[in-house]
Amino acid sequence: MPELPEVETVRRGLEPAMLGQRFAAVSLRRADLRFPLPERFAERLTGRRVEALSRRAKYLIADLDDAQALVMHLGMSGRFVVEAPGTPPAEPGAYYNEIGRHLRHDHVVFDFGSGARVTYNDVRRFGFMDLLPRSGLETSRHFAGMGIEPLGNELSGELLAALFAGKLAPLKAALLDQRLIAGLGNIYVCEALFRAGLHPQAPAGSLVAPDGTPREKAHLLARIIREVLEEAVAAGGSTLRDFAHADGSLGYFQHRFKVYDREGEPCTTPGCGGTVSRLVQAGRSTFYCPRCQPAQR
Predict the structure, then answer these.
(1) Residue 266 is a catalytic residue
(2) Domain-embedded: residue 295
(3) Catalytic: 284?
(4) Is the pLDDT of residue 99 over 70?
(5) pTM
(6) What's the pLDDT at 98?
(7) What's residue 96's pLDDT?
(8) 148, part of any domain
(9) Does residue 235 form part of some domain?
(10) Number of compact structural domains in the chain
């Protein structure tokens, strides 16, 4: 599933085609994705102008000029293909593996007054779209109870201490809890914990001193989470399975992975001499270096 950096990369790829533009036509090739599309979806979008295009966790949000918001989620395999006037669509051969863009999986097509076309393609149809009032969006069914943005100003050692105080849950599980921090996924949590030298099974509360103040490793982890995500966004995300950008190009942060999906390979830390290991937590693979991330710190 695309994680926060991939979704942010898609947002940036869509912005030139969508921001400030009006929907000239909306074509629906089916009535549902993961969920049924909103009633009168095409009618309600046609003629509306996109005032802003933002991201909340792994959701894309287009603010419209009628105080509505188009909420979009990519699911497992969703992608947007952008066609500007005089340019061809992204080629399916640009994708990482054999699952490419097949026209039969083009489910929603947005045509804009500028002549640009944005097509939503989804092989597995786990993505979805919704139309909601922009006012009160944070308390809507998609965003109610969602945690803070890890790329926002809120993320700090102090905040991690407040969120994790007294928690015996494994550190990795706490970081993946979308009610605490929204948008973090398996890939980047593995990478951040490695860089911070923290064992994924350590209790989340171990980042907090007995008096409730953050330990130094809480400050370190907050800084490293931000650094990892910012590096991934700058690199265009990670190309795993069938993820690609809005323009069809591949992400390259996977070439910088230190531990993720590198089980059995030598640790990249100079002088470590260890080997990347894998364990399973809540059904997900966790990659780490036992020497750089010892169980007791």
Answers:
(1) no
(2) no
(3) yes
(4) no
(5) 0.84
(6) 34
(7) 30
(8) no
(9) yes
(10) 2
